[in-house]
Amino acid sequence: MELKEKLISSFMAFEEQIDVLNELHDVRTSAIKNFESKGFPTKKEEAWKYTSLNSILKNDFSVFPKHENTIEFAEVKKYFLHEIDTYKVIFVDGKFSSFLSATTHDGLDVCLMSSALSKPKYKLAIDEYFNKIASKDETLTTLNTAFASEGAYVNIPKSKVVEKPIEIIYFSTGKENALLVQPRNLIIVGENAHVQIIERHQSLNETRANGERSEANPVLTNSVTEIFAQKRAIVDYYKVQNDLQSANLIDNTYIAQKDQSHASVHTFTFGGNITRNNLNFYHQGEHIDSTLKGITIIGDKQHVDHYTLVQHATPNCESHQNYKTILNDSATGVFNGKIFVEKEAQKTDAFQQNNNILLSDKATINAKPQLEIFADDVKCSHGCTIGQLDENAMFYMQQRGIPKKEAKALLMYAFSNEVIESIKIPELKKRITKIIATKLGVNLGFDL
Fold first, then answer.
1. Helix (H), strand (E) at residue 54
2. Rounded to the nearest 10 degrees, what angle do helices 24-38 and 139-147 cross at?
């Protein structure tokens, strides 16, 4: 049975086994009908022109985990931001891990989506926010909506400055033959509130009885996150994607911003087989600031696709996009960025930049920056560069005693530094720097 048919046939059984608000039945039914009609996206669609899911969909994915898998903190400590105290919402093979988590209801809600969907005290928030900005047409988003039951629920009340970051981590143990997980996150940030969130999807190698490590089974994660930033709210969201070659990630993030809010999303992509990041910003007020930044460093046959949309619908707003990509071996990168400025959105200031370095003749980058402007009093620009490392700079550094490998790494780090410098959590900045050094195969010789 093909995966599409397997999902459709599993839908009724899924609805029977979950305890959610009855009002969501119509939402789920409409969503699964959309998926049934459209199926998985193909390269015939313009938005998916450079990314094929065919190699992934050949796997016989399990819709529900067959086992209750657990992991010890010592096994996964390195994936946590353990240098500082954080709130934690942790899942193992799609199931909540109370042992690894540190949730709270003390002045704010950092808890489970399943609780928010099933308990009456959250009904008002669910009615107002759930599935309100997530696409009703994008097939993978609607698939997630049909099966949405678990994930992170974060609700920050008015004027609350969250004192420590929130970590949302999804671990896959690899013990299932092939697993499809569909996390659903809802983030609500009230007026004048401020929050920092780190999201990670991480597969683990399985340890055999003799102590040896084996490659994990394939995992497909189809994630949807809705973020609502109310007036003057500040949201800093960081995505760390440094997964195994057995992991595939489709990440759909939707952000709605009210007047004078600031929302930034940083995406750091270093691992995984196929990674697709769909990032959508919607302006619903004036004097809004949106920031989209990313660093991608991949090799082998890895494939990373960034698809971004900023919809400027109101006057006097800004958006800033800056994506850096370094590709080696036979890796493929895609940047498809769109800025849409409606007629009413006068005084818009929108900037988009995509810079790419190819370290191999076999590496490929497909870049498609787009501007659609219907207002006449705007300042919009976009730029895209594709090239190799500067041989003159390499020669200059080697003449001053820096070995070629280190010189090459320093140039690539400098290329990425503009994005790294904008990370607002010092411990995360150090972590990203170390990951980059590992990817480049050098010790950079300094700490941030």
1. helix 54-57
2. 140
- Cα dist from 53 to 8, 36, 151, 318, whole Å: 18, 17, 24, 34
**The pair of three-digit structure tokens given for residue 233, joined into one six-digit string:** 């709210």
Residue 188 in contact with residue 156, Cβ under 8 Å?
yes
Q: For residues 65 and 306, which has the higher predicted lDDT (pLDDT)? A: 306
Least confident span in 82-86, 163-167, 179-183, 210-214: 210-214
Tell me the average pLDDT across 263-279.
97
- The amino acid present at 376, given as its one-letter code, is D
Strand pairing class (206-207; 303-312): unpaired
Tokens read off for 187: 């983030």
Q: How would residue 206 be classed by pLDDT, with cut points 50, 70 and 90?
A: low
Q: What are phi and psi of 392, to 5 degrees?
A: -65, -40
DSSP 208: P
**Rounded CA separation 357/245 (Å):** 22
Return the axis-axis angle of helices 404-420 and 426-440, rounded to nearest 10°: 150
Torsion of CA 425, 430, 435, 439, to 10 degrees: 120
pLDDT band at 446 (very low <50, low <70, confident <90, very high): very low
**Is the pLDDT score of 448 beyond 50?**
no
Q: Are 103 and 88 in contact (CB under 8 A)?
A: yes
Mean pLDDT of 352-369: 95
Please give the structure tokens belonging to residue 61.
């994915």
| Backbone dihedral angles phi then psi of residue 198, each to the nearest 5 degrees | -120, 125
What's the length of the chain? 448
Counting residues of the chain whose pLDDT is more than 70, the rounded percentage is 95
* Phi, psi for 31 (deg, rounded to 5): -65, -45
Cβ–Cβ under 8 Å, residues 319 and 351: yes
The CA-based dihedral angle spanning residues 158, 164, 168, 173, taken in that order and rounded to the nearest 10 degrees: -160
What span, in angstroms and rounded, lies between the C-alpha atoms of 345 and 311?
Answer: 10
Query: Could you give the 3-state DSSP secondary structure of residue 155?
Result: strand
Contact 373, 341 (CB under 8 A): yes
Cα 46 from Cα 309, distance rounded (Å): 14
Residue with the larger pLDDT of the pair 46 and 394 = 46
Selection from 153, 142, 132 nearest residue 182 by Cα: 142
Q: What is 171-228 written as a DSSP string?
A: EE-S-SSSEEE--EEEEEE-TT-EEEEEEEEEE-PEEPTTS-EEPPPPEEEEEEEEEE
Q: Is residue 208 scored above 50 in pLDDT?
A: no
- Res 210 pLDDT > 70: no
